[in-house]
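Question: Now follow the chain.
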Amino acid sequence: MAGQNNNAPVGVFDSGLGGLTVAREIMRQLPSENIVYFGDTARVPYGSKSKDTIVYFSRQIVEFLKTKQVKAIVVACNTASALALEEIKDEVDLPMIGVVKPGAAAAAATTKTGRVGVIGTRATVESGIYTEVLKEIDPSISVIGKACPLFVPMVEEGMTEHPVMMEMIDYYLRFLKKSDVDSLVLGCTHYPLLRSQIADYLGSRITLVNPAYETARGLKKLLEENNLLNRQKEQAAANLYVSDLPERFKAFANSILPIDIDRVKTVNVEQY
């Protein structure tokens, strides 16, 4: 895999907008890497769908990314990482990384009480994937999971600063605030966009773990191991694709990414 693929892009996909937090971290930590991003905006949310459906969608997206000659794939979606990654990894002759394992490893390294909280979509929390991975790292860790389904639509509506958002944070996280959890995984890629609000609410006793940040670190390691790091120094390119609503996506991307996005293309992922 070494050599000729180094300048090829990294493929990144998510059910919609949230994975842009992962793309943002990759751009910050690996500024030389070109990115092809796909957001499945026509079929979002994934968090309420079955495992079979998410595996099916993920396979289609991977096939699309392969047509862009990507050198590695980042599953920038907790739900797809939890339910599809292991299933499709062996079918793809490319290095792949999800957001769950890097996030879990950081939480295990952070906790002092051995009590870790995980918030995410219903599918991620009910899959128990974070509990499974954390217990593989340290069997003595106990995990409290909480699904926060309304966070995603509110973030996508741009309501992160809205008073209703603070009411939702209180509604979902009140019991965590009273628990002895000292490390909390933001187990959905939208949630880093609520990081400061959640931190203000929970206080300094609970350390927030951002899997987007940890995934970019993990990607760097993966590319190094496969001798695939892009050594060129010029500003990398990012090509963004969606299955629906490109203008809305472009506005959101430009509000959080460190580079200007002038175009988002629509692709019919059903054909792959």
Q: What stands out?
A: The longest strand covers residues 115-120.
